[in-house]
Automatic annotation (TrEMBL):
<dbReference type="GO" id="GO:0042597">
    <property type="term" value="C:periplasmic space"/>
</dbReference>
<dbReference type="InterPro" id="IPR050490">
    <property type="entry name" value="Bact_solute-bd_prot1"/>
</dbReference>
<dbReference type="InterPro" id="IPR006059">
    <property type="entry name" value="SBP"/>
</dbReference>
<dbReference type="Pfam" id="PF01547">
    <property type="entry name" value="SBP_bac_1"/>
</dbReference>
<feature type="signal peptide">
    <location>
        <begin position="1"/>
        <end position="18"/>
    </location>
</feature>
<comment type="similarity">
    <text>Belongs to the bacterial solute-binding protein 1 family.</text>
</comment>
<keyword id="KW-0732">Signal</keyword>
<protein>
    <submittedName>
        <fullName>ABC transporter substrate-binding protein</fullName>
    </submittedName>
</protein>
<keyword id="KW-0813">Transport</keyword>
């Protein structure tokens, strides 16, 4: 049903392009204020250049968006000129994307985090420009922690204990809908991010090592998933198994959760004028796993790429250059707490005042853990899907962590052909 609706949406957008009401078309995400920020940026460029731009909204789920892009690009359609692509997609989508280095000078690309430029460079071609970068963070209710004399948790065990205690006390006080912790546990790319953070924070690796070895079947990863499975139906609602970013934010922002794992965009929305939790939120690094674990946070974020099938690559690249520029990234950081990819913006006083954790968590953003997309190349989507299916089964109580990870290890090894990918 959803797929049909999306197809219809695209057909409608395509028609307006075909009818000549737009000469460029860009796909933008629509999470929170994303779409309106995109629209404003595009409008500013259009009024400068006189070129009309059509915006195509895409599904919130990264997994669904990827499937849609693959369909469009496989058909070599010229209908979308610019694609907003996830940090884990350049390897797979590269054959369909223009080398932007022919349009965007090196002194501009050099302003961006070099790790992202490296990530977006495939076989020597710069296939996308970084737009915003993120890492998973922990949101907490400052007022509730204060009320119960608790401190922000440093380990998952502390988070579990604090969440349970406050959840119970708040329910006794009459808020029956209060939960301790919400996150993303629906079967999709978001769960891959959350689960990789749990596993990595226990020292259980990143699923596939940087040299291609499948590493997921290890005792620390088992321990991490066992911990998470105990949350379901206890400190986390059973329904979390169907939550994506926006559903977790809905619960937290309406005041019904003590803790939330999410991306930085939830900060600006949680502090918006109409937000019930405005001014009551703190943001810290995600907890460490066990005594020997460390703080983790998966690297996320989005890039802008120009399709090889675009009829106007030069103009499209110019729009990409504008949208990823310093003033645009600053505007998006101030209004939407979208982390810039231009390093000097992290020294900008206005940016730091709008989202103070950009400064306090700078190291977490710098050291964010990459999903194994570079090493697994165009098999990444499959690897990620196998991982989130396995984790979802464990969280839903259908299987044990030990069994699921042993099976996942075998599946991924078959897929990797002895680490060659
Ligand atoms: C966010 C991240 C993206 C990730 C997705 C998963 O949009 O920026 O990298 O794949 O969440 O849901």
């Amino acid at each position: 049903m959803r797929r049909i609706a999306l197809t219809l949406l695209l057909i409608l957008s395509f028609e307006s392009v075909a009818a000549g009401t737009a000469s460029l078309s860009i796909s933008c995400g629509a999470l929170g204020v994303e779409l309106s920020l995109c629209q404003q940026g595009v409008d500013a460029w259009s009024s400068k250049t006189g070129i009309d731009v059509n915006i195509v909204a895409t599904p919130n789920s990264a997994t669904e968006r990827f499937a849609l892009y693959q369909q469009i690009l496989a058909s070599r359609s010229a209908d979308i000129d610019i694609f907003q692509i996830d940090v884990v997609w350049p390897g797979t989508l590269a054959p369909h994307l223009v080398d932007l280095s022919q349009y965007i000078p090196e002194d501009i690309t050099a302003q961006h985090f070099s790790t992202l430029i490296t990530n977006n460079t495939v076989d020597g071609a710069l296939v996308a420009m970084p737009w915003f970068t993120v890492a998973g963070v922990l949101y907490y209710r400052k007022d509730l922690l204060h009320k119960y004399g608790e401190s922000p948790p440093q380990t998952w065990q502390q988070l579990t204990d604090t969440a349970a205690r406050i959840q119970e006390a708040e329910r006794l006080a009459g808020n029956l809908r209060m939960y301790g912790f919400v996150f993303q546990a629906k079967g999709y790319e978001g769960l891959t991010c959350d689960a990789l953070e749990w596993v990595d924070s226990f020292g259980g690796g990143t699923l596939v090592s940087s040299d291609g070895e499948v590493t997921i079947n290890n005792p620390k990863a088992v321990q991490a998933l066992e911990m998470a499975s105990r949350w379901i139906g206890n400190i986390a609602p059973q329904g979390v198994l169907n939550y994506d970013e926006e559903q977790s934010r809905g619960v937290f922002q309406s005041g019904n959760a003590v803790f939330m794992r999410n991306w930085p965009y939830a900060w600006a929305l949680g502090n918006a004028e109409d937000s019930p939790v405005r001014g009551k939120i703190g943001v810290i690094a995600l907890p460490r796993g066990g005594e020997h674990g460390h703080h983790s946070g998966v690297l996320g974020g989005w890039q802008l790429a120009v399709s090889k099938y675009s009829k106007h690559p030069r103009q499209a690249a110019d729009l990409v250059r504008y949208l990823t520029s310093y003033p645009e990234q600053k505007r998006r950081a101030l209004i939407g707490s979208y982390n810039p990819t231009i390093s000097v913006l992290y020294q900008d006083a206005e940016v730091l005042a709008a989202a103070p954790f950009f400064g306090t968590l700078y190291a977490s953003f710098q050291n964010a853990v990459a999903r194994p997309s570079r090493i697994t190349g165009d098999k990444y989507a499959r690897v990620s899907a196998e991982f989130y299916y396995a984790v979802h089964g464990v969280l839903g109580g259908k299987t044990t962590a030990a069994k699921a990870l042993a099976q996942l290890q075998r599946k991924l090894e078959r897929l990797s052909r002895g680490g060659q990918w």
